């Protein structure tokens, strides 16, 4: 590997975030695992370093708390790769007619605004260095092309908004050396979907691909886990 980068992964105490961190570490990047549970992030970082020899750090980070995000930015320093993996699914089985608005607010606060807040915190450094990769973990439930999923309306809405954010950030950073994309990892076996068939390690491959794109790679795109561009 010729370019060793620093990668920050939010939601890294979950299965998918931890798998992404592990794969980036195996590729030789310094990885910083971030999560609301700092002790869990520290334990995963230690295990990853022992298993792979990767350079790992950890930090407590609550994407809903501006002070927490600012403190993480100041503590971590320069970040080249940002993987926004923190997310919640709080409304399975709900429908748009009757869902409590507090569930909608919670979903948007974490899945959309939290991603926006963290991206704003680390984008200035990427722009200054004229290199960066931002990967937002989206979902097939948010695709108008394939049909929005109404069985978790707040989650789907938050991911639609996340996709829109991806496009706007990509447009605002065009020709800057920063690439911003959303990835649909598919149905992954995590706390959100414990019965899903796809393992976090399998899903991590597509996310890491987006996080390490060459300079002429796509930006403002909705990418599938198999490296293909899918319709919004």
TrEMBL record:
Which Pfam families does the UniProt entry name for this protein? Answer: adh_short
Q: Which Gene3D superfamilies match?
A: NAD(P)-binding Rossmann-like Domain
Keywords from UniProt, A to Z, are: Oxidoreductase
Look up keyword Membrane and say if it applies: no
Family matches, as InterPro entries: NAD(P)-bd_dom_sf, SDR_fam
Q: Select a single GO molecular function from the record's annotations and give it.
A: oxidoreductase activity, acting on the CH-OH group of donors, NAD or NADP as acceptor
Superkingdom to which the source organism belongs: Bacteria
Task: Report the coiled-coil segments.
Answer: none
Assigned protein family: Belongs to the short-chain dehydrogenases/reductases (SDR) family.
Question: Could you identify this protein by its name?
Answer: Short-chain dehydrogenase
Organism from which the protein derives: Micromonospora pallida
């Amino acid at each position: 590997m010729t370019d060793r980068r620093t990668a920050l992964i939010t939601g890294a105490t979950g299965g998918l975030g931890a798998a992404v961190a592990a794969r980036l570490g195996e590729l030789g990047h310094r990885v910083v695992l971030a999560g609301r549970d700092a002790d869990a992030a520290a334990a995963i970082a230690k295990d990853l370093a022992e298993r792979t020899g990767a350079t790992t750090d950890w930090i407590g980070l609550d994407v809903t708390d501006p002070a927490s995000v600012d403190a993480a930015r100041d503590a971590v320093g320069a970040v080249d790769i940002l993987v926004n993996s923190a997310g919640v699914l709080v409304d399975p089985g709900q429908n748009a007619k009757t869902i409590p608005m507090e569930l909608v607010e919670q979903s948007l606060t974490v899945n959309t605004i939290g991603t926006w807040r963290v991206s704003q915190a680390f984008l200035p450094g990427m722009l200054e260095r004229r290199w960066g990769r931002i990967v937002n973990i989206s979902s097939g439930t948010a695709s108008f092309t394939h049909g929005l999923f109404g069985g978790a309306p707040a989650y789907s809405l938050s991911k639609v908004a996340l996709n829109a954010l991806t496009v706007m950030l990509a447009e605002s950073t065009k020709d800057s050396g920063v690439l911003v994309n959303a990835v649909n990892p598919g149905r992954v076996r995590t706390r959100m979907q414990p019965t899903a068939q796809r393992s976090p390690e399998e899903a991590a491959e597509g996310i890491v691909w987006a996080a390490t794109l060459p300079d002429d790679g796509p930006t403002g795109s909705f990418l599938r886990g198999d490296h293909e561009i899918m319709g919004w």
